[in-house]
Amino acid sequence: MTNYHLDxxxxxxxxxxxxxxxxAGEFExxxxxxxxxxxxxxxxxxxxxxxxxxxLPLPLLNVDTGHHFPELNEFRxxxxxxxxxxxxxxxxxxxxxxxxxSPAPGEISRNKLQIPTLLAAIEEFRFDCCxxxxxxxEEKARAKERFFSYRxxxxxxxxxNQRPEIWNLYNGRLHSGENMRVFPLSNWTEMDVWEYIGRExxxxxxxxxxxxxxxxxxxxxxxxxxxxxxxxPQEQTRELVVRVRTIGDIISTGLVESPAETVDDIITEIAAxxxxxxxxxxxxxxxxxxxxxxxxxxxx
Length: 300
Known about the structure:
- This protein is α/β, with parallel strands linked by helices.
- It has two domains: 195 residues, HUPs (Rossmann fold, 3-Layer(aba) Sandwich); 80 residues, no CATH class.
- The protein is 33% helix and 15% strand.
- The chain is built from nine helices and ten strands.
- It has a six-stranded mixed sheet, with helices on both faces. Strands 8-7-9-10 form a four-stranded antiparallel sheet, with no helix packed on it.
- It is globular, with a radius of gyration of 19 Å.
């Protein structure tokens, strides 16, 4: 008798594929949130393994803040075309113009404005499930998530009102207007993601690797200089060799000085890192409860 043994990455992959197929079996109109970031790149490969040679049974959905890195949007559009997948992009700019989203006076970050934009897209296409790439190791609020994260008819998340997941059984039953967010990568870590990218030889946007970029020092981190980040009179910029660890709004994504030019370099760097992955996101630094508050309002 052959003894099959799954290594760590194979076990995570098998678990995630099982959850993907559960979504396809339980929901009528699922979508996969695809930004072009490293986690959603892994989700896309897992979806391929779960459903090929058939077409992907769900569209790709992206909420574009208008403050994205250009490299990220180019990669997002190209990968969707290469895979023959339907890509739906809903823009915060359009949501503001239509009155769906309202920016707070003086606030330049659009991260919070993704919430009404996403909820409007879910209502527009009647999505009953959105698959996301959040992981429990990223942040305290996300550590409270289950694989199937129930959202009420307002799109809101209550960490005290979630369903038990015993013996890998998932309850996807919903009433009209309710929604489920599903996170197949919940048990993965940043290291797992990069080791999987290396094993599968997945392409990722160039900004994950070291490159020269003009930066400004603010809130104890280097931020990329862009038309969306007004410089203060006393601030001076520097050109540095940097990369991103986690990608969000271009005005809140911190850069790390790094010589990493390959996936193996990044894995070595993560192993020695003393700062968490989301420690370079200024929107998370604003408040310890910032992420949980956004998730309760309907964030990813």
